[in-house]
Each structure stands twice: as C-alpha cells, then as structure tokens.
Amino acid sequence: MLLAAESMTQASLAHVLLLAGVLFAIGIAGFLARRNLIVMFLCTELMFQAVIVAMVGFGRWYWDFSGQVFVIFILTVAAAEAALALALVVLLHRRRSTLDAESWTELRE
Amino acid sequence: MDPILPYIATAGAALGLLLVLTGRTMAARSSGGVVGLASLAWLFGMAGGLPGAAGDVAEHVFFLIFALTAVASAVQMIRQKRPVYSALFFVLVIMSVCGALVMLEAFFIAFALVIVYAGAILITYMFVLMLAQQASDSAHAGETPEYDRSPREPFAAVMVAGLVMATVVSAAFTGLGDLPPAAGAETRVQADAALLRSLPAQVQREASQAGVSLETEDIAQGVRVDGDQVLIDGVTEAGDPTTVHLTRPGNTSHVGWMLVASFPASLELAGVILLMAMFGAVVLARREIDHAERALARSAGRVAEDSESGQDA
Amino acid sequence: MIGYAMAITKASAGVPAVPAAEAIMAPELSWAGLILLLPLLSLILCGLCAAAKVTSKLPAVITATALAGAFVTSVFLYLNYQPPGDVIPLLDWMNISWGDGQFESFSANFALYIDSLSLLWIMFVTGLGTLITIYASEYMEPDLGKGYSRFFAGVSVFLFAMAALVLSDNLLMLYLGWEGVGFASYWLIGYYYQRPAAVAAAKKAFIVNRIGDLGLALAVYLIWTTFGTVQYDELMTVLEDGDYRAAFEGWTVSAIPFLLMLAAFGKSAQLPLYVWLPDAMEGPTPVSALIHAATMVTAGIYLVARTYPLFLLEPVSLHVVAWVGGLTALLAATIGMAQYDIKRIMAYSTVSQLGYMFLGLGVLTTYGAAYHVFTHAFFKAVLFLTCGAIMHGFAGQLDLRHLSGLRHMRGWRITAWTMFIGCLCLAGFPFTSGYFSKDAILAEAFVTQGPGFEILGWIAIFTAGLTAYYTFRVWFRVCAGPVAYEPGDELHGEDDHGGEFHPHAPRLAINGVLVLIALGALVAAVPYFMSNTADEHLAGGWVADMVHDSTAREGIPGFHGDAHAGHGDAHPTIFGADPHVAMYWISGTVGMIGLLFAAWLHLWRRSQADAIKAWLLHRAWIGWLPRAMERKWYVDEVYHALIRAPLWILGHILYAFDRFIIDGLLVDSVARIPRGVARCLQPLQSGAVQAMAIVMVGGAAIILLLMALFMQFGWFGGQA
Amino acid sequence: MLSVLLMVVPLAGAIVIMLAPARAARGIAMIATLAGAGIAVAAATNFDGWGTGGWGLEFQSELLPTLGITLTLGADSVSLMLILLTALLMPLAVLGSWTAVTTRLREYYGWMLVLSTAMIGVFLARDLLVFYICFEFTLVPMYFLIAIYGSGNRAWASLKFFIYTFLGSLIALAGLLYVVWQHAAVAGAWSFSIPELAAFASTGLTSVEQAWILLALMAGFAVKIPLFPVHTWLPLAHTEAPTAGSVLLAGVLLKLGTYGLYRFVLPMVPAAVVEWAPLIAVLSIIGILYAALICWVQTDVKKLVAYSSVSHLGFCVLGLVALNPLGLQGSVLYMINHGLSTGALFFLIGMMYERYHTRDMGQVGGLASKMPVWSCFMVFFVLASVGLPGLNGFVSEFLCLIGTFAAGGSGAYPGVLGPWLAAIAAIGMIFAAMYLLIMVGKIVFGTLREPPGHASDMPSDLNFREIVVLVPLAIGCILLGVQPDLAIHAMEGAVADTLSAYPDVVTGVLNSVSPQGATP
C-alpha cells in the first residue's frame, strides 16, 4: 500500500519519455532542416537536452543516480564538442564566408 | 484505446511542425502550432492512462507546464530565422528543461545545466554567432542570409523526425508496462542508508552533534532503517544508549558520491577530454588563422604571391 | 584400369547379345566382318592417299579391291548360308542394363544378322559397288591428284555404311548405316564442293534425309518402349509370343509402322520427301548410279521388308505405303516426261520405280518389291552409267535436245546399245528383267484387297506406259536419229582439239563395266525361273526363296498367312483372267504403246513433239499441265514457301526476340534495377551533411520503428 | 592424395608462372597441365569405383570442426570422367593458345591454371563449401580471360557473364544453406557434407520446401547450363572469349551446371524434381528448338556454335530429368561428348580466326580448297556434333532421347515425361543438321572467299601443333562413338545410386496425383 501510494507521487515516466522524444524529434528536424551550421549545432544540443531528460527520468524511476552522473558526462562532452565544433565552424566560415552547410559537399563521391 | 491512435497523434504533431516550419503566412504557422500542440496534448493525455503515468497532481502539472514551454521554445528555436534568436530560445529550452528536472528531483543537474549550458556554452555560441554575423554583415548589409531564411527539405526532415518520434512513442506506449514498479519510499530510504554507511565521517559528525561518538568500524553495521528514518544506535558521552536520527542525504550527495565512488575513471577521462578539446580548439583556430591570413594576402595582390612563390622556389 | 576392364566384361556378359537359340552360331563365321572391315580399311587407305597427295589411280585400285573382297565375302556367306540364319557378333557397342526384366536393358551391338534378305541385298550392293568403282576409276580421271582419293574414300564410307545398314542385327546399327549412307551421300553429292549447286544439293539431301531419320529414330524409341528390344531376333520372338499389347498402349504399335514409313520415304525418295533425289544428280555420275539409283535409295524398301511384321500389325500403314508408292510413281513419271536433262529424267524414273517398289510392299508382295529392287539395281545402274559416259564424253552435256544419233558414232556404240538394254528393262519390255519384276507388283495390286487397290493398279499400269514413253524418249533422242551434238560447259583440256570439240569415247573400264552390268540386267530375269527349293507353294523363283527365309516372308507368293487376304479361294480377276497371267499381256501391251509413242514423237517425227507441246501450252485448259510437269509440280517452291521460308523467318524472329526481349528487356532490365535504384537514391548522396544524416537517421528510425511495430502488433510472428 | 595433387599441381604451376619470366609462362603451363593430365590418368587407373558406384580419391581434412567445415574431396565415376575431360582439355587449351595469345602471358596462363584447379575442385568436392567456393571461383579466371584477352565487346560480355552466373549461384547458395541450416537444426551439429545433406534433404524436407530449394538450385545451375530463358549470357561470352576460353567454357564450365543438377538436385530434392521435371523438360525442349532456329540465321560462326551449345545442353538436361538410367547415362555421356566436339569446334574456329581475323561467314568461305586439313577436321567435328552414329554425339543424344521416351511408362524406373516430349525434342536433330550443315556449306565448301585486303598466300593450312591439338579430341570422339560401353559401364553404379530414390518417389507422386485428378 505504502509503495503504491509512494509511486503516486512520481511524475509520469511516460510523460517524461514523451517530452524527451518530442525534444529529440524537434532537434532532428531542426538539424536536418536548418542550413546554418551554428543552428545545426544548437539542434544537436537540443537533442542532448532530450537525452538528459530521459536519463534523469529513468534514473528517478529506479532511484539510481548513475543517470544523473551520466548527465554530467554529457555536459562535459557537450562542452568539449561545443568548443571544437565552434572552432571548426569559425574555420569553415573563414574559408567560404558562409555558414551554409550546403556549401560543403566534398563528401560527395 | 486503439494502439494506432498514438501514432496518429504523432503524425499530427509532425504535421504541425511541418506547417510551422514551412508556412508562409502567419495563419498557416499558427494553425500549425495549434495542430501540433493539440496533437501533443492528445498524446500526453493518452499517456496519462499508462502504468506509472499518474502522480502528485501539482508536481505533475508543473512538469507539464515546463514541458510545454520547452517544446514550444524548441519549435521556436528551430524556426527562427536569426540564429541569435535561436540561441536565445535555446536558453529558454534549457530553462524549461531545468524546471522539469527540478520536478524530477534532479536538483543538482538542473542547476548545473543552467550554469554550464545557459551560462557557458551558450555564451560561446553567442560569440561565434557574433563573429560570423559580423563577417557576413559586412558583405550583405545586415540582411538575413538566404540559408537562414529557407529551410532545406523540411518535409524529409520532419518525416524523419516523426519516425524517430514514433519509435519513442512506441516505446512509451508499449514498453513501460514491462518495467519493474517504480522505486518507492522504501527504496529511497535504503539508498540513503547505504549512502550514509559509505560516509562514516558524516555520520560521525552528525552523531557527535547529538553527543554520540561512534567508531568508524561500527557505522557500516550500525546504520539502519526504521520507517522513513535512518537511524544509528550509539552511546552518549553520559553512557546512555540513544538513537541518532541521521539527516537523509540529498540529491547532490548522491550524485557526488556516485560520481567519485563509482565512476572515478570516467571522471578523469572527462577531464582529459575537456583538456584535449581546449587544446584542439586553440590549435584549430590558430592554424587556420595563418591560412586565412595568407589567403587574405593572396587576394590582396598577385605580385606578392608571385614573389612569395618565387622565394619558395 | 584392370578393374574397369573387368567391370565391362562382366556387364557385357550379363547382356545376351544373341538369344540362346542362336548361341550355337558358328564362331568361324566372324570372318563375315570383313564385309564391314574392308571398306573401312579402304577408307583409311584412301585417306592416307589423300594425305600423301597420291596422283595415281591407287585409291581406285584399293577401293575396288576392297569392295571386290567384300563381294567375295558376301558370296561365301551366301554359300555358307543355312536357312534360319545367323547372328554374328562382332563388337560391343551399347549395353545398358539395370535389371533382368524385358524392359530393363538396352542393348545394341555391332553384329551381323545373316538371313536371306540381307544376303540378297549385300550381294548386289557389293557387286554393283565393285563394278561401279571400276567404272569410276576411269570416269574420275580428270580429278586425279585432286579429289580422286576423296571420291573413293566417300565410296568406301558409303559401302561400309550400306553394309552396316543391310547386315545390322539391330535397329540401332541399322540407324548407323542409315545415317552413314546419308552422310556418304552428302559427301559425294557435294564432291564438287566449289559448285554452289552441288553444296546446296548435298545439304538438301542430308537434311531431307534427316527428316526421315527422325522417323526412324522415333520408331526405334517406340519399338524399344513397346517391345523392350531393338534386336531383330528378339523382336521377332516377342512378336510371335504376342504378349506386348498387354503391357503397352495400342497406339505405339500403330504408330511404329508410320514412323518407319517416314524413314523409308525419306531415304527412298517418296512423296513427300523425294525432292532431294533429283538435286542429288549434282554428284559425279558413278555416285548417282551407285547411291541414288541402285543401292542406297532401296534402303527404304529394305527397312520396310525387314520390319514387315510390324507393318502387318497395322494394316492401314500398308495401305498408305501402297498409295504413296503408287502416287509417287505417277507423279515422278509425269515430271520425268517433261525434263530435258537425261540424268534428271533418270532420277525421276528412279523415284518412280521406287514408288513401284513401295506399291509392291503395300500390296503385300515383298517378293515383288525385292525382285524389282534387284532388277532395278542393274538396269538403272546401266542407264546412269551410260548417262555418265555421255556426260564424260560430251563435256557435261546432258540436254537431250543437244544430243542425237549416238549409236552411229565411233566408240559410242557400246554405250548406245547398253543403254538400249537398260531402257528395255526399265520400260518393261516383254521378257526383260524389268518386265517380270514389275508384273509381279502390278498383278498383286489387283489380287490384294485394300482401299482402292484396283484403281491403284490401273494407275500403276498407266504409269508403266508413261515409263516406257519417257525412257525411250531419251534413247530415241540421244542414241537414234541423225548424228548431232553440242559440247556441255565443262570443257576439259583434252577435248579441245584445235578449237573444235571432239567427244572422247569411253575406254575399257567404262565399256567393260557397262557391258557387264547390262548383261546383269538381262540375266536378272533368270532368277524368276530359278528356284533352289523344293517347296511347291513357292512361286517366283530364287528371289522369292531369298525373301522367304526372312522377316519379310509374309509377302511372297504362296505364303498363306492370314494377313494375306484374298489369296487362295477368293481370287480377284482382271477381264476374267488370273491377274498374274493377265498382267503379262496388259503390261506388255501398255509398254509397247508407250514405246511406239516415244518412237513416233522422238524418232520419226521429232518436230511433231514440239508442235504438240506448243499446242498444249497454248490451251488454257490444259496448258498448266506440261508447264507444271516441267517445273516439277512446283514441289520445291511449295516446300520453300511452306517450310523453309517460315522457319527461316521464325529463326530471325526468335533471334530478335532473344536479343531484344529476353536479353534486352528481361535480363538487362533486371540488371538495370540496381542501377535504377541507385539513380533514384543518388540525390541523397549530394555530399551535404544533412542529406546523409537524413538517410542515416531515417534508416535507423525505420528499422527501430519496424522492430517496435513487430513487437507491438505481432507482425511476422513477433510477440504480440 | 591424388585428389589433392590434382588440385594443387595447376595451382603450383600458376604460382611458378607468376614468379618466372613471361617467356617461360606457356612452357610451365604446358608442363603443369600435362602433369595434371597424368595425375588424372593415374587417378583413373587406381580408381576402383568404376562401374560399382563407389567413391575413390578420398581426402579429408578438418578445417573448423565445430562448424562442420571440412575439406573433403572424393570422386565417383561420373566425377572422375568429368575430371578426365577437364584434365584432357587443359593441355590442349594451353597448346591451342600457343601463338594466339601474345600479350600478358603470365596472367593468361596463370589464370588458366587457376581455372583448372577450380574446375577440378568442383568435380572433386564432397563438401558443400569446397564445391561452392570452387564453383564460384571458376568465374574469376574466366572473367579475366574474357575481359583481357577477348575480342571486340569483351568488357560487356565478361561483365554480363560474371554477374549473371554469379547472381544465379548466389541464389543456389541460399537454397543450399537452407538445407544446411535445417540439417543443423535437426542433427544438432553443423555439417556441409554433400552426401549427408542429400540424404537429409531427400527425406527430411517437405515437398514445398523441396520445391523452393529446387527453384533456388535451378537458379544457379540453369544459368550455368544454360537453360532456355536464362541463356543469353552464353552467346555473348562465347563470342567474345579467346579460343581457349571458349573451349573451356563450352567444354567444362557449362558442365558444372549439369553436374550440379546431377550431384545436388537429383539426390537432394527428389519429390520436387518429380513434380517439376515436366516443366524443366519443356524448358529444355524449347531451348533445343529455339536455339537451333536461332543458329540457323547466324552469320557469326562462333555465335552459331555458342547457340548450338544451348540447344545441345537442352538434350543433356532432358536426359537428366528422364530419371532413368538410359537418360541419366546419356546425359553424363552428353556432358563429355559435348565437351569434346564443341570444344574442338571452338578450337577450329579459333584457328580460322587466327588466320583471317573474322568470324563472319559472309566474309570467309570455301576454305576447303585452301585449308583441306582444317576442313576435314571441321566436317568431322560438325558431324560428331550433329550426331552421326559411330561418332560420340549420337550415342549420348540417342540415350537422352530414348530415356525421355521411356520415362512415360511403368517398369523399374517410371518417369514423368514420355514419348510426346521426346518426339518434339527429336525435331532438334533435324534442326541441328540444318544449321551445322549450312555453316559447313558456307565456310568449308563453295568458292573461296577471303576478307578483302587479305594477302592470299598468307594463311596456310593447319600446322603440326594445331593438328596435335585436334587429334586427341577426334580420337575421343571416335572412341566414345564406337565404344560408349567404356563410359556407360563405368558409370552404371554411380547412376544407379543417384537414381535409387526415384522409382518410389515417382510411383508415389503418380499415385497421389491420379486420385486427385479423378475427384474435382
């Protein structure tokens, strides 16, 4: 009884997951649809947010803090990524004077 | 509930997103927003009937409000034509997410996010944006560049996003039933007790405040749980046996302990990564400045380049 | 390898090549294999001569010697002959067995089946072969050192194959000979391989024969599936026991004779497969005489006679044989009447005479057919050889309008008179050999009961008149009348004496052979009166004796088989007389009438012939007849339009179909699917990061989603 | 060990060629192929399964026992005959290319030897993996032989050849792997042993499964044979291949398909074979007639002979699906005979091509007067191909057809074909005579025609080397024509083993069909 009552106090895991999913999807949509390199990176950060939400949500479900610990790692990686990626963006921008992702198509066969 | 309905709601949300992204008129965009939010609301409503989908009403309502804000700002973020606005909306997303995290009792993370993301990372973005904007502004006289005004293949993008969403929806609507029940109060107390057992110094400190001195060796066995209390028996300086009610550790203690106790190597690695990222950023930026300068020099005049190459030869 | 050899010995021991009854066959008879071996030896020696570029007459000598040896061997065989006959195994060929039952083995070996029928055939084949080889040794002189060896090698091949055909102990070896003679014929018709007409004729002969061969092959298959054996002796045993019908569907038994008939008609140039024979005259004349008149073309008669019991199982087949024979005789005779090339006339007369033989087979007189084969071999050989001599001497001239009065020319008398003998026999002049043999057939047409056999008899009699006419048309035109000639288009250096053409008369070899064979043609009448058996019922003399001991015994006079309806008590008559007797008079009369017509139109009043022809041609109601006769009833053209051209067009259509539909449309487009799919997806590979991301994320999402949906809805057997 | 030597000696030759100077290449190849032929003859001499159906030349080596992957070699009499054919053709092919190939000698002869190893490997394999690897590996050398040394359109031809046959055999592999998988599921251990799999599949699979496996196997083998609708790579590949390539393609590679039918399809899926034999037979017959008519209108001699292969192999398949000893023995004989006579025809055409650099019958003709020896051989082999009795082609064609004919009745080996199919197929005999004689009539006989601008004294008749190439084939043709018993008795036991399951299966199918037919 006690456990059941306790569980009533928790925010819905389904809702947490849905929030994560929606954010992630919006991030993907933005990443794919926007052509500005910086906004694309912003969108990846948005996807990080989605992942963070999901991790925290599950961590709370199990009352396991490794979820939150990993959020810290994600933060680290995000920071590192932001540093490097933005350096690269600056670099690319210097070469072409544009932030348009489509101006870089050297990956084509 | 027909199992197909969540997918229909997902499709509706995707449609709304598409309209928001591509709508040429205000009306189209706002109707897209309405459709999208309505679909999402329907989706969240359906999810209310799932196992573990109920909760403390106030907490839940706040969670939903934050969620709504986060989603709305995220949408705004990806549709804003000016990158600066996108970045600002992203800050709003982070704030809303932090709010949601607070509702999920992840206080440390929530504040860390605000500090690191909204504070540090986003500022870096801002700087870069300003750098880039400045360069393009010089060419295009403050006009939003074409690549910011028109999205590329929004339909495909939204479709892929919808597919991803659909997988998550599928997981949310089918997989959760198989999970073990959520951790209840008992689990939490036990977790707190376990943490306290690993932190004898803290326990000693607290016990000494209550006038009890404990041997380090006894703490591991002594800490026990009674109801939602964490207790430890001891003897006062007066020699009376007494029970000390220990303060239950908070979120930050848990996270911090887990970080250093369970993932020390990862922590070190994370530090190394950060360091390397810093080096990398510096190196990348430096080298390319040279290139850029040389390019500038080239564009300045062919004579210089020729003489340079002549010297090289 | 030792184990291997043992396995073979064991296996062949398990297969009875010779039934137990014949197992007592005298082993010393295996020298009879010389009949096959000698021509083969001669073939190899001629081949060596060709390789050594021999320029003498050595190949002719070799071949003649070998064939003479074969002839002597066959005569010895005849002298050693004991009535039931013998099987002489020579060499294993094909033996497959997978059980001990009747239908659980297939066995066909090189073995000789010696009975009177095969002896009759092999003797005249080797005998005439020898003589014609001698003739050819002179005839082929112009080719000395060029194709001489090749020619005689071909003759050797032919004799080998013919001997195999005639002496074979099973249908498969017969098939070997059958195709072998076809091949030899191809070889020799195409002897002048630089002449397109000769090459075309050779090809045509082989292919038309192949149609017949198909019939034979199918017949062999059917015979094996029906009777479980292809060996004559076992076949006859099964037939006598009569237990085959229970095991098999009746239609196979009925179909076999028709298929055999197809084979026989192909080889013996009957309707509708006779078209190759006239064209075959492109070959050297000795070849025409040997292969296309005397021997090979009678293989069809031999086949039917050999498998006569099978025909008797299905009487309708014999009726068909009779009618086809009779109609071919008539048709070929009408064409022969209108030709000018004497060799072609002889070719059509051969077709016509072969028609008689089939008529004879059809009206149940194998004896008559065999006798006619026998006599025809001689007199037709004479006729062809004289034609050859003329052709040889007059530089290829064969048009009877450009030759006349040969019998008055020096050196040509023997040719003219031997030809006369041949013509008499062919025309059925009383008391010549052809007279007796033809009568035997004609009379039987009236005796035997069958659908319209009486009409057929009158057709045959009418044809006999036509035969006499066209035969003597040749002789009166070419040999009688005033001396006049023009050279043909094959002038040899030796004929060119100072710008004026002098025909060179035949010399010893040709003349000698002509005389010998002409004598043979006359003497061939003698066997009619000669019998070495004491059997009272056997009329018809030596040939009838020879047929009597064989598989074809049902069709000899005096044999009272129940299949031979009409013999004995209910004897039909012509004009109230026994047909056998009446026919002596009727055919003699008809022959005389034809002869007199010929004499009138082509000896006494040659201009009249042209006038009549002109008169006929200008009458609309009848004008088509001589024209059609001269154009051979347009049979070649009809075949071309109905068979060859459609198939050729079909070939082109199929080739186009193959290239464009199967290869182009189906195969290549299947091959293009991957390329097409790749083309469709190519825009995704724009190189833009996001495009790749779309594919990557979309792909991952689709896979995940599908997995999730399978789990959720239980598709494809997933957990619901 | 002889079986390993058979495979290793050519391979070793190829390695030596790679290391040796180019001018020594053909000599080394000659030695290696002659050695291979010698080993094959030695193997045949020591083989004691002639006629009895036993296996010999066995060799086994465990490679990956846990997965059931072994290197198992062995041959029954049918395999050994085909090995003998391959080993005989190889030195001739090398000798035939003596002067025809002038560039990149080391690669040419190296690939030839590798091809030899692969072909022999197919016939020696008693293990599915060995079989399949060798089966596929024949493609690679042949691809290079065509693509590098072929004529005109060689790139397209080689590509088509490779992809077409490769695709087909992949499908076959899928079918075979299904059998392996099922067998592993039942037996509990992986095994790739062909006899084991055949024994399992013939009894352990349902008729529906068998039908699918048959379809998959046919996809691989029918392309290789090639059967009617999937034959179009063959004329192209044959036409463009170098002479020795054509010889080996016609002589051996096509036989891989029929051998596959013999080794896999017949023992593995009897029920499906019985069910689908009429369809396969009809396809073969269509192929016989269709290809024959196409031959008729060809002007390219080599293409004509290539299409004739399609026609001829139709008889071969027909004999296989007759499902009785007559047809099967005829079919195996056909494989050998076709290898001899068509191989020789390709040699002859190659010799002509070497002299005139054209294969167009419109440009070359009447060669009898210029090249009598060549013409003799040409006529001889054409006759062997036409099926003149006394030469080899006749025996096998006859047995295939009579087998088909007998496949309608009851008896020890009931069948599902019957006289009508055989009768229609037999029309192919007429067509064969037609197109081959037309070809002979054009290029051998008639007045001499040579390509314009050709020095008239230049080409001479065959030299000694070329005669040496042709004579063994001619001897083989005569030997197998006059003494087919040698081969027939040798394969008797093996054929009986292959067919052992069939009488019951056929009877079962016939009995189960007729009541159904009676009740609508």
Oligomer: heterotetramer
Overall strand count of chain A? 0
Dominant shape of chain A: elongated
Helix and strand succession of chain A?
A: HHHH
* DSSP helical segment count of chain A: 4
CATH fold description of chain A: Helix Hairpins
Quote the average pLDDT of chain A.
Answer: 82
Secondary-structure-derived class of chain A: mainly alpha
User: What is the helix content of chain A?
Assistant: over 70%
How does this structure look, described?
Helices cover 77% and strands 0% of the residues of chain A. With 109 residues, chain A is mainly alpha-helical. In chain A, helix 3 (37-62) runs antiparallel to helix 4. The longest helix of chain A is centred in the C-terminal third of the chain and has 31 residues, at 66-96. Chain B is mainly α. Chain B folds into three domains: 5-178, Four Helix Bundle (Hemerythrin (Met), subunit A); 185-255, no CATH class; 263-312. Chain B is 75% helix and 5% strand. Chain B has 13 helices and three strands, in the order H-H-H-H-H-H-H-H-H-H-E-E-E-H-H-H. In chain B, helix 1 (5-22) packs antiparallel against helix 7 (154-175) and helix 3 (57-79) packs antiparallel against helix 4. The longest helix of chain B is centred in the last third of the chain and has 37 residues, at 264-300. Chain C is 67% helix and 4% strand. A two-stranded antiparallel ribbon of chain C has the order 1-2. Chain C is globular. Chain D is mainly alpha-helical. Chain D has one domain (2-513). Helix content of chain D is 74%, strand content 3%. Chain D is built from 20 helices and two strands. Chain D has helices at 2-19, 25-46, 77-96, 105-124, 128-137, 139-149, 154-187, 194-204, 207-224, 233-240, 243-268, 270-296, 301-321, 325-356, 372-386, 392-406, 419-443, 464-482, 484-499, 502-518; strands at 56-64, 69-75. Chain D has a two-stranded antiparallel ribbon. At the C-D interface, helix 1, strand 1, helix 6, helix 7 and helix 26 of C face helix 7, helix 12, helix 14, helix 16 and helix 17 of D.
